[in-house]
Specification:
globular, 17 helices, 67% helix, 2% strand, 318 residues
Length: 318
Protein backbone atom coordinates (compact mmCIF):
# COMPACT_ATOMS: atom_id res chain seq x y z
CA UNK A 1 0.00 0.00 0.00
CA UNK A 2 1.24 3.50 -0.84
CA UNK A 3 -0.09 5.05 2.36
CA UNK A 4 -0.28 3.20 5.66
CA UNK A 5 -2.95 4.65 7.88
CA UNK A 6 -1.91 5.19 11.49
CA UNK A 7 1.79 5.87 10.95
CA UNK A 8 1.31 9.65 10.80
CA UNK A 9 -0.56 9.47 14.10
CA UNK A 10 2.43 7.73 15.66
CA UNK A 11 4.71 10.43 14.27
CA UNK A 12 2.47 13.03 15.91
CA UNK A 13 2.85 11.30 19.28
CA UNK A 14 6.60 11.12 18.71
CA UNK A 15 7.01 14.83 18.02
CA UNK A 16 4.82 15.61 21.04
CA UNK A 17 7.26 13.65 23.23
CA UNK A 18 10.17 15.62 21.76
CA UNK A 19 8.51 19.01 22.23
CA UNK A 20 7.41 18.29 25.79
CA UNK A 21 10.93 17.22 26.71
CA UNK A 22 12.53 20.28 25.15
CA UNK A 23 9.99 22.47 26.89
CA UNK A 24 11.23 21.07 30.21
CA UNK A 25 8.51 18.63 31.23
CA UNK A 26 11.07 16.57 33.18
CA UNK A 27 11.44 19.43 35.64
CA UNK A 28 7.67 19.47 36.16
CA UNK A 29 7.42 15.77 37.11
CA UNK A 30 10.18 15.78 39.74
CA UNK A 31 7.61 15.63 42.55
CA UNK A 32 5.66 12.75 40.96
CA UNK A 33 7.76 9.61 41.54
CA UNK A 34 5.95 7.40 39.00
CA UNK A 35 6.31 9.93 36.16
CA UNK A 36 9.89 10.77 37.12
CA UNK A 37 11.03 7.13 37.36
CA UNK A 38 9.39 6.19 34.07
CA UNK A 39 10.25 9.32 32.12
CA UNK A 40 11.82 7.26 29.33
CA UNK A 41 8.35 6.01 28.39
CA UNK A 42 7.36 9.45 27.14
CA UNK A 43 10.66 11.31 26.76
CA UNK A 44 12.06 12.99 23.67
CA UNK A 45 14.43 10.05 23.32
CA UNK A 46 11.44 7.73 23.14
CA UNK A 47 9.90 9.97 20.49
CA UNK A 48 13.07 9.72 18.41
CA UNK A 49 13.10 5.95 18.93
CA UNK A 50 9.58 5.72 17.49
CA UNK A 51 10.62 7.87 14.52
CA UNK A 52 13.65 5.63 13.96
CA UNK A 53 11.63 2.41 14.11
CA UNK A 54 9.06 3.72 11.62
CA UNK A 55 11.83 4.94 9.32
CA UNK A 56 13.67 1.62 9.30
CA UNK A 57 10.44 -0.25 8.64
CA UNK A 58 9.25 2.03 5.82
CA UNK A 59 12.57 2.57 4.02
CA UNK A 60 13.36 -1.13 4.03
CA UNK A 61 9.85 -1.95 2.81
CA UNK A 62 10.23 0.49 -0.10
CA UNK A 63 13.63 -0.93 -1.05
CA UNK A 64 12.42 -4.53 -0.89
CA UNK A 65 9.34 -3.76 -2.98
CA UNK A 66 11.42 -1.98 -5.62
CA UNK A 67 13.96 -4.78 -5.83
CA UNK A 68 11.18 -7.37 -5.98
CA UNK A 69 9.39 -5.51 -8.79
CA UNK A 70 12.37 -4.34 -10.86
CA UNK A 71 15.08 -6.81 -9.95
CA UNK A 72 17.26 -3.95 -8.71
CA UNK A 73 17.16 -0.62 -6.85
CA UNK A 74 17.64 2.70 -8.60
CA UNK A 75 19.96 4.32 -6.07
CA UNK A 76 20.05 7.62 -7.95
CA UNK A 77 16.27 8.03 -7.70
CA UNK A 78 16.32 6.89 -4.08
CA UNK A 79 18.80 9.57 -3.03
CA UNK A 80 17.07 12.26 -5.10
CA UNK A 81 13.77 11.46 -3.34
CA UNK A 82 15.47 11.54 0.08
CA UNK A 83 17.26 14.82 -0.51
CA UNK A 84 14.19 16.54 -2.00
CA UNK A 85 12.20 15.51 1.06
CA UNK A 86 14.79 16.30 3.72
CA UNK A 87 17.05 19.09 2.48
CA UNK A 88 14.72 22.12 1.89
CA UNK A 89 13.62 22.49 5.56
CA UNK A 90 17.20 21.86 6.72
CA UNK A 91 18.72 24.49 4.43
CA UNK A 92 16.30 27.09 5.80
CA UNK A 93 17.12 26.01 9.35
CA UNK A 94 20.88 26.23 8.78
CA UNK A 95 20.45 29.60 7.12
CA UNK A 96 18.62 30.88 10.18
CA UNK A 97 21.30 29.45 12.47
CA UNK A 98 24.02 31.17 10.46
CA UNK A 99 22.24 34.54 10.65
CA UNK A 100 21.77 34.16 14.41
CA UNK A 101 25.47 33.42 14.82
CA UNK A 102 26.55 36.33 12.62
CA UNK A 103 24.44 38.78 14.63
CA UNK A 104 25.69 37.45 17.95
CA UNK A 105 22.41 35.90 19.09
CA UNK A 106 24.12 32.52 19.24
CA UNK A 107 27.77 31.67 19.89
CA UNK A 108 29.67 31.78 16.54
CA UNK A 109 30.39 28.06 16.56
CA UNK A 110 30.73 27.64 12.82
CA UNK A 111 32.58 24.33 13.20
CA UNK A 112 29.52 22.91 14.94
CA UNK A 113 27.33 24.19 12.11
CA UNK A 114 29.53 22.46 9.53
CA UNK A 115 29.54 19.21 11.50
CA UNK A 116 25.75 19.30 11.61
CA UNK A 117 25.42 20.29 7.94
CA UNK A 118 27.40 17.22 6.87
CA UNK A 119 25.22 14.92 8.97
CA UNK A 120 27.86 14.16 11.58
CA UNK A 121 26.40 15.84 14.65
CA UNK A 122 25.82 12.50 16.35
CA UNK A 123 29.64 12.35 16.64
CA UNK A 124 30.12 15.95 17.83
CA UNK A 125 32.46 16.34 20.84
CA UNK A 126 31.19 18.25 23.85
CA UNK A 127 33.53 21.10 22.97
CA UNK A 128 31.55 21.85 19.79
CA UNK A 129 28.07 21.14 21.11
CA UNK A 130 25.41 23.85 20.59
CA UNK A 131 22.00 23.06 22.06
CA UNK A 132 20.11 24.66 19.14
CA UNK A 133 21.84 22.13 16.87
CA UNK A 134 21.60 19.28 19.35
CA UNK A 135 18.54 17.66 17.82
CA UNK A 136 20.29 17.24 14.45
CA UNK A 137 22.10 14.20 15.85
CA UNK A 138 19.07 12.07 15.00
CA UNK A 139 18.93 13.47 11.45
CA UNK A 140 22.58 12.46 11.11
CA UNK A 141 21.85 8.89 12.23
CA UNK A 142 19.00 8.58 9.74
CA UNK A 143 21.10 9.98 6.90
CA UNK A 144 23.96 7.62 7.70
CA UNK A 145 21.44 4.79 7.52
CA UNK A 146 20.33 6.04 4.08
CA UNK A 147 23.96 6.18 2.92
CA UNK A 148 24.65 2.49 3.45
CA UNK A 149 21.46 0.42 3.80
CA UNK A 150 20.19 0.71 0.18
CA UNK A 151 23.57 -0.61 -1.00
CA UNK A 152 23.18 -3.62 1.31
CA UNK A 153 19.68 -4.43 0.05
CA UNK A 154 20.73 -3.96 -3.56
CA UNK A 155 24.08 -5.75 -3.33
CA UNK A 156 23.01 -8.93 -1.57
CA UNK A 157 21.32 -11.54 -3.72
CA UNK A 158 18.52 -12.46 -1.38
CA UNK A 159 16.71 -11.12 1.64
CA UNK A 160 18.32 -13.67 3.97
CA UNK A 161 21.69 -12.00 3.49
CA UNK A 162 20.20 -8.63 4.43
CA UNK A 163 18.59 -10.18 7.50
CA UNK A 164 21.98 -11.48 8.62
CA UNK A 165 23.56 -8.03 8.16
CA UNK A 166 20.74 -6.41 10.16
CA UNK A 167 21.16 -8.97 12.96
CA UNK A 168 24.92 -8.35 13.09
CA UNK A 169 24.34 -4.59 13.37
CA UNK A 170 21.76 -5.10 16.12
CA UNK A 171 24.19 -7.32 18.04
CA UNK A 172 26.91 -4.70 17.58
CA UNK A 173 24.61 -2.01 18.99
CA UNK A 174 23.85 -4.09 22.07
CA UNK A 175 27.51 -5.02 22.57
CA UNK A 176 28.64 -1.38 22.21
CA UNK A 177 26.57 -0.40 25.24
CA UNK A 178 28.75 -2.69 27.37
CA UNK A 179 32.15 -1.52 26.09
CA UNK A 180 31.66 2.20 25.41
CA UNK A 181 32.58 3.17 28.97
CA UNK A 182 35.89 1.31 28.97
CA UNK A 183 38.58 3.67 30.39
CA UNK A 184 41.53 4.70 28.21
CA UNK A 185 44.52 7.02 28.53
CA UNK A 186 44.40 10.47 26.92
CA UNK A 187 46.87 13.31 27.56
CA UNK A 188 48.24 11.41 30.52
CA UNK A 189 44.87 10.98 32.22
CA UNK A 190 42.37 8.13 32.34
CA UNK A 191 39.06 8.98 30.75
CA UNK A 192 36.14 7.37 28.91
CA UNK A 193 34.36 8.18 25.68
CA UNK A 194 31.17 9.34 27.49
CA UNK A 195 33.30 12.08 29.07
CA UNK A 196 33.96 13.52 25.59
CA UNK A 197 31.04 12.49 23.37
CA UNK A 198 27.37 11.56 23.41
CA UNK A 199 28.33 7.97 22.63
CA UNK A 200 24.72 6.81 22.73
CA UNK A 201 24.13 8.96 19.64
CA UNK A 202 26.88 7.39 17.54
CA UNK A 203 25.52 5.40 14.63
CA UNK A 204 26.34 2.29 16.59
CA UNK A 205 24.36 2.01 18.92
CA UNK A 206 21.82 4.73 17.97
CA UNK A 207 20.66 2.88 14.85
CA UNK A 208 19.32 -0.02 16.95
CA UNK A 209 15.61 0.90 16.58
CA UNK A 210 16.13 1.63 12.87
CA UNK A 211 17.62 -1.81 12.34
CA UNK A 212 14.90 -3.48 14.40
CA UNK A 213 12.33 -1.79 12.16
CA UNK A 214 14.32 -2.87 9.10
CA UNK A 215 14.61 -6.45 10.32
CA UNK A 216 10.88 -6.58 10.98
CA UNK A 217 10.18 -5.35 7.45
CA UNK A 218 12.41 -8.02 5.93
CA UNK A 219 10.83 -10.78 7.99
CA UNK A 220 7.40 -9.48 7.00
CA UNK A 221 8.08 -9.46 3.25
CA UNK A 222 10.02 -12.73 3.25
CA UNK A 223 6.83 -14.53 4.27
CA UNK A 224 4.03 -12.03 3.74
CA UNK A 225 1.07 -14.43 3.67
CA UNK A 226 2.13 -16.21 6.86
CA UNK A 227 2.67 -12.96 8.77
CA UNK A 228 -0.63 -11.59 7.52
CA UNK A 229 -2.47 -14.66 8.81
CA UNK A 230 -0.84 -14.27 12.21
CA UNK A 231 -1.44 -10.53 12.59
CA UNK A 232 -4.81 -9.88 10.92
CA UNK A 233 -7.52 -9.35 13.55
CA UNK A 234 -5.13 -10.68 16.20
CA UNK A 235 -5.39 -8.48 19.28
CA UNK A 236 -3.00 -10.72 21.18
CA UNK A 237 -0.21 -9.20 19.06
CA UNK A 238 -1.39 -5.76 20.11
CA UNK A 239 -1.25 -6.81 23.77
CA UNK A 240 2.21 -8.27 23.21
CA UNK A 241 3.46 -5.01 21.71
CA UNK A 242 2.19 -3.13 24.78
CA UNK A 243 3.87 -5.63 27.12
CA UNK A 244 7.21 -5.16 25.35
CA UNK A 245 6.99 -1.38 25.36
CA UNK A 246 5.94 -1.08 29.02
CA UNK A 247 8.05 -3.96 30.35
CA UNK A 248 9.76 -1.75 32.94
CA UNK A 249 6.43 -1.20 34.70
CA UNK A 250 6.03 -4.86 35.69
CA UNK A 251 9.64 -6.15 35.71
CA UNK A 252 11.49 -4.58 38.65
CA UNK A 253 15.00 -3.19 38.11
CA UNK A 254 14.96 -3.88 34.39
CA UNK A 255 18.32 -2.68 32.94
CA UNK A 256 18.04 0.23 30.54
CA UNK A 257 20.14 -1.62 27.95
CA UNK A 258 17.39 -4.23 27.81
CA UNK A 259 14.63 -1.60 27.82
CA UNK A 260 16.28 0.01 24.77
CA UNK A 261 15.78 -3.29 22.92
CA UNK A 262 12.31 -4.17 24.19
CA UNK A 263 10.73 -0.79 23.42
CA UNK A 264 11.50 -0.75 19.66
CA UNK A 265 10.40 -4.40 19.46
CA UNK A 266 7.08 -3.34 20.99
CA UNK A 267 6.80 -0.47 18.51
CA UNK A 268 7.65 -2.61 15.50
CA UNK A 269 5.07 -5.24 16.52
CA UNK A 270 2.55 -2.41 16.69
CA UNK A 271 3.59 -1.20 13.22
CA UNK A 272 3.02 -4.61 11.67
CA UNK A 273 -0.30 -4.94 13.49
CA UNK A 274 -1.38 -1.56 12.09
CA UNK A 275 -0.21 -2.63 8.62
CA UNK A 276 -2.62 -5.60 8.59
CA UNK A 277 -5.49 -3.99 10.53
CA UNK A 278 -6.11 -0.73 8.69
CA UNK A 279 -9.83 -0.47 9.43
CA UNK A 280 -9.73 -0.81 13.21
CA UNK A 281 -10.80 1.74 15.81
CA UNK A 282 -7.20 2.26 16.97
CA UNK A 283 -6.02 3.12 13.47
CA UNK A 284 -8.98 5.44 12.94
CA UNK A 285 -8.07 7.30 16.14
CA UNK A 286 -4.48 7.68 14.91
CA UNK A 287 -5.88 8.93 11.60
CA UNK A 288 -7.92 11.70 13.25
CA UNK A 289 -7.25 14.55 10.84
CA UNK A 290 -5.58 17.06 13.20
CA UNK A 291 -3.37 14.30 14.63
CA UNK A 292 -2.45 12.89 11.22
CA UNK A 293 -1.70 16.40 9.94
CA UNK A 294 0.75 17.00 12.78
CA UNK A 295 2.36 13.68 11.89
CA UNK A 296 2.71 14.73 8.25
CA UNK A 297 4.55 17.92 9.18
CA UNK A 298 6.43 16.37 12.11
CA UNK A 299 9.76 16.46 10.28
CA UNK A 300 9.53 20.21 9.77
CA UNK A 301 8.43 20.71 13.38
CA UNK A 302 11.37 18.63 14.57
CA UNK A 303 13.86 20.58 12.48
CA UNK A 304 12.67 24.07 13.44
CA UNK A 305 11.95 23.46 17.11
CA UNK A 306 15.71 23.57 17.63
CA UNK A 307 15.56 27.32 17.12
CA UNK A 308 13.20 27.68 20.08
CA UNK A 309 15.09 25.82 22.78
CA UNK A 310 15.18 29.17 24.60
CA UNK A 311 11.68 28.17 25.79
CA UNK A 312 13.21 25.24 27.63
CA UNK A 313 16.43 24.19 29.33
CA UNK A 314 19.71 24.56 27.49
CA UNK A 315 18.99 27.24 24.89
CA UNK A 316 21.40 30.09 24.19
CA UNK A 317 18.85 32.38 22.52
CA UNK A 318 17.79 35.17 24.85
Amino acid sequence: MKYIKGFDGLRAISILFVLLTHLGIFDLVQDIPFLKDNFNLYSGGTGVMIFFTISGFLITSLLIREKSSNGTINLKKFFIRRFLRLLPPLLLFYGAMLVLMIFGLLPPTYVALLISFFYLYNFVPFSHYVSELGHTWSLAVEEQFYFFWPFVIKGLKNIKGSIIVALLIIISCIAWNFVSSTPFMMHGKMTTLPNCFFVGRWFIPACLPIMIGSLTSMILFSNLEYVQNKFSNNYYILVLSVLFFFAQLYIPNLPYDLISVLQPIGITLFLVWIYFNQDTFIVNVLEFKPVAFIGKISYGIYVYQGLFLRTGPGGDLA
